[in-house]
Every structure is written in structure tokens, then in C-alpha cells.
Amino acid sequence: RTLPGMVDLASGRVTVDDFEELDIEDLLGRAPVPPDKALLARNLSGRTVLVTGAGGSIGSELCRQIVLQRPVKLVLIEHNEFGLYSIHRELEILCSEHAANVELVPLLASCGNLNRMREIFRIHRPETVYHAAAYKHVPLVECNAAEGVLNNVFGTMNVARAAMEAEASHFVLVSTDKAVRPTNVMGASKRVAELVLQALAADRSFRFDAYDCDEALQVRNTTTFAMVRFGNVLGSSGSVVPLFRKQLRDGGPLTVTHAEVTRYFMTIPEAAELVLQAGAMAHGGDVFVLDMGSPVKIIDLARRMIQLSGYTVCDDANPNGDIEIEITGLRPGEKLYEELLIGDNPEGTAHERIMKAREDFVPWARLAPILTDMRQAAIDSDEETIKRILSQLVHGYRPESPDARPTLAAT
To answer: Mind listing the pLDDT tens digit for each residue in 185-203?
Structure first.
């Protein structure tokens, strides 16, 4: 926790109840990346905007920042009822506080339901779409590969198709550094979602199969697709910081899977700002990444949280310390380090800390039949076939060997 000044403490103007939670930025190890206000507003002000996964950590922060840019309408898509209620209520208060006249439309819906997506897009005609809905927890998706693929790959394809049919101007996918040479189904499924959008962006006419709706459809694409990759988000649901906080409250130990595990980190506002700004710079098929500084060792993050919380680390060098750090072993699909780029030599952009990756892709004519097979395998809960197709399609993915780094010509 951060403390008030000594004068305020001595005078009695503050009490222990005024102490604040430790600022998440104290854990970042670098200065937060400032936003470009013109880029933030470019695709938002005066427009109809739609956010999927609106109740999640990233989706809800996107919504908070979007309403401050004063769109005409903000459509919130979320399949968790309480999550949707919470963000809708918060946005109503935020709009009132800032005198922002934004029409808020909270909709309970799943991206896995294509007909529902098409109906929403047909009625509201969003101009800008941010697709944040996904299953992101690596061990859980590893144990539920079929559901992970249906949601992360085909949910993305459903929303993209609905956006194309409604002639949305911009579509931005919230992606992850785990999509780069993934060792897990979650990362591989997010890379396939990227491949879908890259293929859609490279062509202007598509024939979609008639799954989950009444008919096959030839769609003329006028939508600009982009993807934004970033690393772990400090304080997001299911992330390491809330876990460490709970373990600290319980008196420890803090659990780390491996002493050498490193991750790139950013704050939730940074992540949302990156998505909004990168989407405004997109020309079609762009994969954007943030210059996130150096990766951070998770064990160093644990030590920093212990020390900033007023405790000492209990280890061989300090056996009388307060809190231990326990090494628990890598979880299924987890790897020691993450990367942001598949290829080399990223391009600069209008924002000094945002880069554009040079990534190969699979043309739609070649990708579509592979997706058909993958979807059927997911419907059948055939995880062996799912992983076999992922290993053929996604560069570097090998389910049987977490540390493998093979080279595949497919992507």
C-alpha cells in the first residue's frame, strides 16, 4: 500500500482507512506508454462502436476509454450476465460524470452464435469493432481444447463475418504474445484467429459455408482488419498479481512455476490504449505490437511485491524472512518465455512505441477447408485432431514438446 505524507499522518487528517492499494504501475519496471490523443479519438468520436467481451478485464477498460471519446452509441456484447451488468452500470455513471451523451446498449450474447452476431450487427450497424472476447487462461484452455478453439477461432470468425456483412469500417482483434510460436492451445488458437483476419484482409470476396445459419453467403469485404498483440496485463482477472496479493494476505507462500519464467507486462489502461490507437492506424491485415521494454522474471515480480508490501523474502539467504517463494513447476502448455514477433524487422508507426510486425499468412482459399476440418473436430471434441491441425497450421506449435521450436512452411 502507498502511504500519505508524514505531516498528514501526524496531524490526524488521515487514518489507516485512507491507505491505498499498491499502485500497479510500481510493479511495471518501466514508465507507462503515454497515449496519442488524436489516435485515440480517430475511430471513436461520433461513431457507433461495438465491443465483444465487454465485461472482461481488457474489454471493460476499452469501454471506459471509448465513452470518454464520445461515440454516438456503444454496443456491449458479453455472455456473462453479472459482467455485463457491472460494466453497464459503471459506464452509465462514467457518462453522467463526464456529461457524455452516449447511447449504451448492453447485450447478452455469445460470439459462438453466428445468427445472433449477424442480428446484432444488422440492427446496430457498428462502424468500429473491438473483439476482446476469448478464453485466455492457458491451463484451462489446454484442458478444454475444443471449447477454446470454438470460442477463440470460430467466435472470431463469426464476429468478423457479421462485421463484413454489416460493412463495418474497422475491426480490431485483441491478441496475445502467446500466439507467437505457441506451446499451448490458447496461444495457437489466437494465432489461428489472427490467420483468419489476415486472410480476410488479403482478399475482397469470400464464400462462407452455411454453418450455424440459413445459407452460405458470398461476402464483399470492405472492412479493415487489424490485430494487436501484447503481453501479460498487470491486475487482469486470472493474472499473477491478484494471485500474489491473495497469497500475501494469506501469509504466503507466493507460488512461481519456474525460477526462470519471464513475461512482458503492461497495465490494463496501456493495453486498452494500444488497441484503440493501433486500430486507428490500420490499413488492413496489420499485426501491431507494443515496445514493452524488457521482459520481467516472475520470481523478481514476486520479490518486488513482497518488499513493496512491507515484508521480507524468506529464503536461504534470509531464513528468518516473512514470506516464502515456492517453485511449483511449469503448468500444461506453459513455456519459460514469450515473444512478440514471429518474423524479424518490425516496421515503425506513427506512435513511437507501437510497431507493426511482418507476419506471413495463409490465403483464404487454402485456409478455409482447414478451418472446416478444425471446426468439425471441435464439435466432436476430438482434441487429438484439433492439436494435429494446429501443429500443421501454426508456426512453432508442437503439443507434445513445450520447448520445441520447429519451422513450418505453412505460415
So the answer is: 999 999 999 999 999 999 8
